[in-house]
Amino acid sequence: MSFFPTRTVVGAMFEFQGVWQALEPVMAQPPHHRPPVHPVLYIKPANTWCRAGDAVLLPPEVEEVEVGATLGISFARTASRVSEAQALDFVAGYAIVNDVTVPHQALLRPPMKQKCRDGFCPIGPWVPAEQILDPNDLEIRAYVNGELRQRSHTRDLRRNVARLIADVSEFMSLAPGDLLLIGVAEQPARARPGDAMAIEIDGIGRLENPVQRESAAQQEAA
Fold first, then answer.
1. Phi, psi (degrees; rounded to nearest 5) at 209
2. Which strand (E) or helix (H) includes residue 126?
3. What is the 3-state secondary structure (H, E, C) of 197-209?
4. Local structure of residue 62 (DSSP, 8 states)
5. 3 part of a folded domain
6. How many domains does the chain fold into?
7. What CATH code is carried by the domain that includes residue 40?
8. Half-sphere exposure of 139 (CA within 13 A, CB side)
9. What pLDDT digit, counting tens, does each position of 107-157 carry?
10. How far is CA 197 from the centre of its chain?
11. What is the span of the domain harbouring residue 117?
């Protein structure tokens, strides 16, 4: 079964414990002075969306990308200011998503150039919510050329799935057609042109996409 967004794909940053622990000292320095209290979000706009099997194309200046193995949450009805106890009642299902990103160190501005290139958000298999007994008990695996490169688990989130939905919906409605990404764990795998990326999530399936170099014709069209 598949799901494809019709509205917005929203990603959450710093949600895995390992990512937070690595960056927390930096967050306490100027100009931030303290870690964020609310979820830190970004958008994967429609130009980034693609399907399983589609090639992710890299321009000449990009040597490699991070394989952003993550879980996407879709909604059956609009979630606005919902409680943690109610949050999962609004979920329609869960999808595998590859939040492809150019490696970067910038924390002071949204990483639009690194995250929002064409085709940088493959969206794969989707299952209805009732097929997942507990979204906080899912292993996520990332492969490059068939080799396991990263293993993470939703139990390692700072906010569990319901808490994340509740905290985001406090200031932003999440409606049918939206996809909320839980974030990517520390030390993501990296892929280069010629590599094959794959992501597996327990109970959902497998998402595969090749990485290719842009052709000269595609560069000229851009």
1. -150, 135
2. strand 121-128
3. EEEEECCCEEEEE
4. -
5. no
6. 1
7. 3.90.850.10
8. 6
9. 656 678 899 999 999 999 999 999 999 999 999 999 999 999 999 999 999
10. 14
11. 9-221
Residue 4 lies in a domain: no
User: Residue 101 has which token pair?
Assistant: 């990103």
Q: Is the bond into 25 cis (omega within 30 degrees of 0)?
A: no
**Is 51 in contact with 4 (CB distance < 8 Å)?**
yes
Distance, CA of 162 to CA of 156 (rounded, Å): 14
Reported as a pLDDT band with limits 50, 70 and 90, residue 217 is very low
Q: CA quadruple 106, 110, 113, 114: dihedral positive or negative?
A: positive
pLDDT top residue among 219 and 186: 186
Q: Are 80 and 87 in contact (CB under 8 A)?
A: no
96 occurs within a structural domain: yes
Domain membership of residue 1 (yes or no) is no
The SS3 assignment for 191 reads strand
